[in-house]
Amino acid sequence: MSRERTRPHASSVDLVIAGCFSLFDFYIGPYSAGIRPFDLLGAGTLGVSRLSDTRRSTRWSPWRRIGAVLVLGVMTWALSLSLLQDVQASWKPVTGVVLGLTVFILTCIRPAQPTAIEQFTRLLILLHAAALVAQFTWYRLTGSILNFHAVVGGDPRLVGAFFRPAGLFLEPSLFSVCMTMLVLLRFRLLGRLDRVCVAGLASMLLSLSLLGVVAVAYILVRARPVLGTLVSGAAAAAGVVAAALVPRDSAIYSLIVARLTNIGSDNSTAARFGGLIGSNDEFGVVSMLFGGGIGYSYVSLGSSGVGFMIAAVGVVGLVLFMLGIALAARQGGRLTAALDVLFLLLGAPFWTFFVWWWWLATLVSVRGPVASSRAVPSAPSSAGFVPSISLNVQPD
Question: What are the pLDDT digits (tens) for 211-236?
Fold first, then answer.
C-alpha cells in the first residue's frame, strides 16, 4: 500500500478545497469589486496542505512537463505584455491571474488522488443539484426566491421573462459552468456517465440555461458519440415541436422564437462572441495574432474565455495554450482534455477565478478510465477474492 493511501485526511482536505472553489460566486461587497470568501478559504487550505506536506511531489513525464511549462509560458507572455499597458488599469486582473497560476502550480505539485476526486465530485454534484432543485421547488410552491446569497447580501439574477433557478450561484449560466466542470472531471475519472453524472446533467437542463443545454449535448456526445448525437438531435427536434405547440402569446414562446431566429443579435450570444464574429477596429492584425496583455479590453472581443485569450495573447497564444494543455494531460486523454478546456473557454472568461486554474490542473492529472471506489468486489475464485481495481494512480 502506498504512503498516499495511508493518509485518510487527504480526501477531506481535497473536499474542502474543491467545495470552496465551487462556491466562487459568493461575494462580500459589490459584484465587480467584492471579496470571494470561499476562494480565499480554498486557496489558503490548498497552500497550507501542499506546502506543509513533506512527501515527494508528483513526477511528471517529459512531455507533460513541456506542456505545463508551455501553459505557464503563455500566461507569462500575457503578464509581460500587461506591464507595457496601463498598470493602474490592469493591476487587478494581473493579480487575479498570478494568484490563479499559483493555485495551478500548487495543484500540479500534488493533485488530488482519484479516490478523493471520485468522492468530492459525487458529493458536490449532488449538493449543487439538490440546491437548484430546492430553489426551483420553493419558487413553485411559494412564488418567492430561495436566496442562498442573502447571508452575504447577494441578489441572484433569476427572474426575467420567467424564473430560472441557479442554486448556489447568482445566475443559471454560472451554475451550468461549475456543474460542467464537475461532471467532466467525474466522467474523465470513471470513463462513463454514472447516475451522479446524469443527476448533474438533469440539473443543468432544469436551470434553463442555454449554455447548460449545449453543455449537456457536448457531454453526451463525448460519452457516446453516436448515441449522444442521436439523443441530442432527437431532443432538439422535440424542442422545436414543443415550441410550435406553445401558445403564441406566452413569454416562453416569445423568448424561444427571439433567441432562435435572431442568434446574431441575441444579447447573450453577442456578449460572448459578437466581437469575434464581427469586425473590430480596436484590434489590429498584430494584436489579433499576439495579443496585448491581460489589461487589454477583451470585452470588445466578447466576454468568453476565447475572447480573453485572444485579447491577452492573440490567436498564436491561444493555440500554444491549447497545445500545452494537450501535452500536460496524461497519455491517452490529451485530445479530450484539450476539447473539454476549449469548450469551457467558449462559455466564460474564468481567468481570475481560482476554480478555473484548480480545475485545469486536476483535469490534466486524471488518468482514466478507472474503477469507481464504490464498485462491488468481484466474485470469489479458487484463488480467493479478486480485488477491485485500485483508484491509486501511478506517476507517468
Answer: 898 899 999 999 988 888 888 788 77
CA 224 to chain centre: 21
349 closest CA partner among 387, 394, 386, 296: 296
Cβ–Cβ under 8 Å, residues 342 and 322? yes
Is 327:368 a contact under the CB 8 Å cutoff?
no
| Rounded distance between C-alpha atoms, residue 185 and residue 165, angstroms | 23
The pLDDT, as a whole number, for residue 153 is: 86
Q: What is the rounded CA–CA span in Å between residue 5 and residue 43?
A: 23
Residue 326, CA distances (Å) to 100, 318, 335 in order: 19, 12, 6
pTM of the model: 0.84
Pick from 245, 168, 180: nearest CA to 210: 180
* Burial class of residue 67 in the structure, from the number of CB atoms within 10 Å of its CB (0-12 exposed, 13-18 middle, 19+ buried): buried
How far is 215 from 205, CA to CA, in rounded Å? 9
> Which residue's entry shows cell 406553445?
246
The letter for the amino acid at 265 is S
